[in-house]
Amino acid sequence: MSGPEQPEVHQSAAKVAADALGVFVSAMAGIEQATPDSAGFWDRMCEAVCGTVAVQRAVLLLYDEGRRRVRPVGTFGIDRDRFRPEGVGLEDAPLSRVALEQDRVVDTLDADVAGEDGRRDVAPDLKNLPEGALAYVPIIAGGFWYGVLIAEHRDDAPLAEADRDALWIAGKVVAFAAVARRATRAQEHARQLSARLLLARQVHEQVIQRLFGVGLVLASGDPLAGEGLERARQEVEAAQVELRDLLHGPDLQHSPPTALRLGEEIDRLRRALSDQIELRSTVEPGVEVPLEHESLAQSVLGEAVRNAMKHGSPSVLDVRLARKGDDAIALTVDSDGARATEGHGSGLGLKLAAVEALQAGGLLEFGARGEDGWRVRLLLPSHEEQDEDRGAR
Is Transferase one of the keywords UniProt gives this record (predicted)? Predict the structure, then answer.
């Protein structure tokens, strides 16, 4: 009997491979033209999976290693607005975590997931997910977690083995697309960093040099009058014009917007990292990050955590938010274990955040502290200073 069955096995495997190839082609289409975080790209990925496998609706969630959060980036058959853009912490995503840790498709109708009456007794990872039977597909490549695709079945029966295999392979293909997108994003970050460094160089060579010359004249103590006074005025006006022209260049990428407050993100990170590291936090009474700088502050916090975990073996992360003088607030992240691995340093994310902090009127500094410590500190203007600036204008 094994002879007649063998062609069916081959035919099923060939179909799975063909379906995965269809997803692969869709993944690669237009990858260089789309922006690094293009929702349309991931929407097409979800559509490709739904078009080749027996599922009708899907949402794709990418994993943020630093914040241990999965957030929706693409959907098909369901409105993305139904989901919070911040997503959900991995500690509150039981089925996603199982799919990623075990690298398998988790079906909510599986015996180890469903209750005695066949219904789900595990809370869904995100509010407003489809009510039908769901499959959690791991997006993993080379042991690295890229995210989870949650798909709704077309019927109420558990997934057939062939469909399960097809979804698992499709997940690998989506992971490959995520790798390619990450490379594209890294190139874009490098381009942005080069553009910002060029901006800093132009400001130094053009604006600063003009103002430096005026400063030398003023420092001499000689009174300015007549031609000298006019020349100083012209230099200051020229510096203003050059600075305005430089700052009105192409808009560069900033931290993504967020509806969370920094305190909420700190509490969530403490829970998410509780099994790996102790996270301590201190917030000075009455001190909070201005709303317009929340995304920057949370981005710096995430990068600080990511760098500490990647370049060392920390046991403690100490996060503090306090007032710095009369016109600034400071977000400080200290970690130990910086010398546990060689070559501890800062990533591209911190370098970009440093430039963004300057554009926001603040300052980001990072470096070694003590024998094995590493510090990241973000200084931002306080509400009072910003209100005074607006009143002066």
Answer: yes
What CA–CA distance (Å, rounded) separates 46 from 59? 7
Dihedral over alpha carbons 227, 231, 234, 239 (to 10 degrees): -170
Share of the chain above pLDDT 90, in %: 11
DSSP sequence for 244-275: HHHHTSPPPP-PPP-SS-HHHHHHHHHHHTTT
Quick one: pLDDT at residue 334? Answer: 93
Task: Kindly report the pTM of this predicted structure.
Answer: 0.54
Secondary-structure percent of the chain, ordered helix, strand, coil, rounded to 5: 50, 20, 30
* pLDDT at position 1 over 80: no
Per-domain residue ranges of the chain:
2-187, 188-247, 262-392
Name the CATH superfamily housing domain 2-187: GAF domain (3.30.450.40)
Looking at the domain 262-392, which fold is it? Heat Shock Protein 90 (3.30.565)
With contact defined as beta carbons under 8 Å apart, do 135 and 154 qualify? no
